C-alpha cells in the first residue's frame, strides 16, 4: 500500500514555479527524509501533502485516495519547535494532547473522561505519564518535543510529518528524538517524512529508507 503518491506535480505561487514535475512515492511504514536549502519549497511540499495548497497540475494521492477531509486525520504534523507558541499559554501536557481530539469532542468542545483516558494511554506509551499534569512550558525542550509528537499521534495517524525537528534543539534532545523516531515506527507503524537541512545528523543518527533532496522543483535521490 502506498501512503503517498505524487505524480508530475507542478506548483507556483505566482510566476516562478516552486515544484516542477515532482514525483514522490512513500510506502506504508516507510521512513524518508527530504533535505533542501532555504526557500527551495520544503514547506510548500508539506502544504500540498496536507491539502492546504492545491497543485497547478499533476496528482497527489494519500492511501490511494484523492484529497478529502478524512485524509487529514491520517496525517499527523509536528511543527518546528520554535514555531510552537507553547511558552506563554498555561496549559498542561494532558490538556494540550487532549485538545487535539477537537473534532471528536462534540458540540460543546469539552473533553470528557474517555478523551482524557485516550490521552493518558498514549502518554503512558510515550513514557510521559508522570508529566501529564505539568504545565507544558515547564518542560525541557526534549520533553516538550515528545509531547508535541504525542499530540500528533492522538488521532492515530498513518503518516507523521516532522518539520525541522532538530533545529534549535540541544544535543541531548536530538539524541532523544532519534530514539523516539525508531520507537514510533515500531510501536505505531506510521510512515515518517522528515524535513531537515541537517543531512549529516540524519545520516549518522537515523535509519531512513530513503533520503531525497528537493532541488530545482524536483526530488533527487541522495545515496545513503
Ligand atoms: N504564500 C507565498 N506567496 C508567494 N511566495 C511564497 C509564499 N510562500 C512561500 N513563498 C516562496 O516560495 C519559495 C519556497 O518557500 P518554502 O517556504 O516552501 O521553502 P522552504 O524550503 O520551506 O524554505 P525554508 O527552509 O527557508 O523554510 C520561497 O522562495 C518563498 O519565498
Task: Describe the protein.
This protein has 224 residues and is an alpha/beta fold. It has one domain (2-222): Rossmann fold. It has helices at residues 42-49, 69-72, 93-99, 113-125, 141-153, 171-187, 199-205; strands at residues 2-12, 17-27, 31-35, 57-62, 75-78, 159-163, 191-196, 210-215, 218-222. The strands form two sheets. A six-stranded mixed β-sheet has the order 5-6-7-3-8-9, with helices on both faces. Strands 2-1-4 form a three-stranded antiparallel β-sheet, covered by helices on one side. It starts with a strand and ends with a strand. The mean pLDDT is 89. Adenosine-5'-triphosphate is lined by residues 13, 18, 36, 38-44. Keywords: ATP-binding, Nucleotide-binding, Transport. This is ABC transporter. Belongs to the ABC transporter superfamily. Residues 4-224 form the ABC transporter domain.
Annotated CATH topology: Rossmann fold
| CATH architectural arrangement | 3-Layer(aba) Sandwich
Largest sheet: 6 strands, mixed
CATH-defined superfamily: P-loop containing nucleotide triphosphate hydrolases
Q: What spatial form do the alpha-carbon principal axes imply?
A: globular
Search tags:
single chain; 224 residues; Rossmann fold; 6-stranded mixed sheet; 3-stranded antiparallel sheet; 31% helix; ATP hydrolysis activity; transport; ABC transporter; ATP-binding; P-loop_NTPase
Helices and strands in order, then pairings?
Blueprint: E1 2-12, E2 17-27, E3 31-35, H1 42-49, E4 57-62, H2 69-72, E5 75-78, H3 93-99, H4 113-125, H5 141-153, E6 159-163, H6 171-187, E7 191-196, H7 199-205, E8 210-215, E9 218-222
Parallel strand pairs: 3-7, 3-8, 5-6, 6-7
Antiparallel strand pairs: 1-2, 1-4, 8-9
Helix pairs in contact: 3-4, 3-5, 5-6
Adenosine-5'-triphosphate is lined by residues 13, 18, 36, 38-44.
InterPro entries: AAA+_ATPase, ABC_transporter-like_ATP-bd, Metal_Ion_Import_ABC, P-loop_NTPase
GO molecular function: ATP binding; ATP hydrolysis activity
Organism: Peptoniphilus porci
Amino acid at each position: 500500500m502506498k501512503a503517498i503518491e505524487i505524480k508530475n506535480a507542478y506548483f507556483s505561487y505566482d510566476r516562478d514555479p516552486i515544484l516542477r514535475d515532482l514525483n514522490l512515492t512513500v510506502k506504508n511504514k516507510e521512513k524518508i527524509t527530504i533535505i533542501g536549502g532555504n526557500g527551495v519549497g520544503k514547506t510548500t511540499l508539506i502544504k500540498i501533502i496536507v491539502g492546504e495548497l492545491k497543485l497547478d497540475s499533476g496528482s497527489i494521492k494519500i492511501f490511494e485516495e484523492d484529497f478529502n477531509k478524512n485524509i487529514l486525520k491520517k496525517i499527523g504534523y509536528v511543527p518546528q519547535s520554535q514555531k510552537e507558541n507553547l511558552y506563554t499559554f498555561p496549559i498542561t501536557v494532558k490538556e494540550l494532547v487532549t485538545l487535539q481530539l477537537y473534532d471528536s469532542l462534540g458540540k460543546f468542545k469539552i473533553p470528557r473522561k474517555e478523551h482524557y483516558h485516550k490521552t493518558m494511554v498514549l502518554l503512558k506509551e510515550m513514557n510521559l505519564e508522570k508529566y501529564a499534569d505539568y504545565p507544558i512550558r515547564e518542560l525541557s525542550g526534549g520533553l516538550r518535543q515528545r509531547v508535541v509528537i504525542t499530540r500528533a499521534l492522538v488521532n492515530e495517524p498513518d503518516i507523521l510529518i516532522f518539520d525541522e525537528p532538530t533545529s534549535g534543539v540541544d544535543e541531548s534532545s536530538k539524541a532523544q528524538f532519534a530514539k523516539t523516531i525508531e520507537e514510533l515506527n515500531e510501536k505505531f507503524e506510521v510512515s515518517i517524512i522528515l524535513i531537515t537541512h541537517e543531512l549529516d545528523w540524519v545520516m549518522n543518527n537515523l535509519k531512513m529508507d530513503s533520503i531525497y533532496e528537493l532541488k530545482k522543483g524536483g526530488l533527487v535521490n541522495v545515496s545513503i
